[in-house]
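User: Hey, quick favor. My workstation is busy. Could you predict this chain's structure for me?
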Amino acid sequence: METIKQEIRRLLKILRDKGADEDEIRKLFEIPKSLSRLLITEDCRIILVDYGRVEVKLEPLHRAVYILFLKHEEGIRIKELPDYREELESIYMKMKKRTQAKRKVHQSIIDVSDPLKPSISEKLVRIRKALVDAIGDKSIALDYYAITGKRGEARRISLDRSLVIWELDSPQP
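Assistant: No problem, here it is.
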């Protein structure tokens, strides 16, 4: 055991001499988190089951956007979001109180699905931040749970759908 420790110290010295910073070295010793199952509740809450049932804290419109992308494993191109307005509104209405004006809800959906407005980009940034905060591991949050994709291409969530638990009625499009 002592020889292994000495070998590790020797290799660490080599890494430092070659210019590796302390953060890089510390990451070598981190045990990566495994992926958590993702529960979408009937009331559209997003729960990370295997991370202590942590809820991803998002405003209702942000949750609706996330659930929409989660339902479409193939991804959605931002310029095609207007084609998904009805589905997005249906998800969003599950979270909104009946007292809220339908016109206001409808306008929110039009704004977020308009590819010429910055609304969707702002929502995606907030969703990414909430995922990183809930998961605590930026690379896992961004690589598996976040909505990602290059400009002009479909944006998607790469999480294996076998890890998604749907309590929502008819989760598939």
